[in-house]
Amino acid sequence: MHDFGNAEAQFKKLRAIDPYRIDDIDVYSNILYVSENRLELSKLAHEFLPLEKDRPEICCLVGNHYSLRGEHEKAIKYFRRATQLDRTYLSAWTLMGHEYVEMKNSHAAIEAYRKAVDVNRKDFRAWYGLGQAYELLGMHQYAVYYYQHATALRLREAIECMKRALLGADPRETTIHIRLARLHADLEEFMESAAYHQRVIDVCTEDNKPPMEYAASSLNVARYHAFHGGGDLAHAKELMEVIAASQCAEVSQAADLLKRIKLLMTARPAGEVLAQYRKGVSLADGLGEVLISNKWA
């Protein structure tokens, strides 16, 4: 969650040292906009515009000032001016799109958002804006596509953030691994998700922790092997036997899954199970790839 209050305080300290610093003034204006600090935003706009009207950051600042006042046409004028001064100014294209959405001008909004996507295809805000614009047009299938793409990019950002946190974490920690596993599961990246869950299981069992500490991870790894291409049914069975025999809240789930795994093992010849397993990537390989990517991230 963004700490806008702290960010605003840091910018105030910076301005006390250098009152006419233009670099990052657009970022400060975004913070003031989100915080709805109309007074400070108005003060900045009137203070900086006479200083350097041809700096895109200042045009963005003034655009935010007018947007917060609900003067969308004036806001668009300054955001457009910012993009004329710098065609690669991502924030200005995106903010211009937002203003057109507010004015219910979907076609102009789509054009602005597409320019933003051209600048940076990994910025989720422009994709989300495209979803909003197409929703206004009643083109719901397009809207869902762009919303899903925006969500996936947002999840990718979260994954990269968690990976950086993992670099400096205790080697025996499990919380970050669980969060990474859930994020990958949300993206339907089941092998990566299972690899992080397996790490949780390994750490907990090595540290002699009770099954309740890793029951959820065991269920996820077992499901991966049974239903999402892992293929190691013997390992899935072993995991579920431990949880089913415990006093965990997940006992009933584990018992049910154990029955299904046994049915899979008896329904398919052992040779077929082994062949399918060898065709895929083993969980150990998957974990190795994840750990290597974390090391060099």
From TrEMBL:
InterPro entries associated with the record: TPR-like_helical_dom_sf, TPR_rpt
One GO CC term on file: anaphase-promoting complex
TPR repeat ranges per the UniProt record: 56-89, 90-123
Record's keyword terms, sorted: TPR repeat
One BP term from GO: anaphase-promoting complex-dependent catabolic process
Protein name in UniProt: Uncharacterized protein
Source organism: Antrodiella citrinella
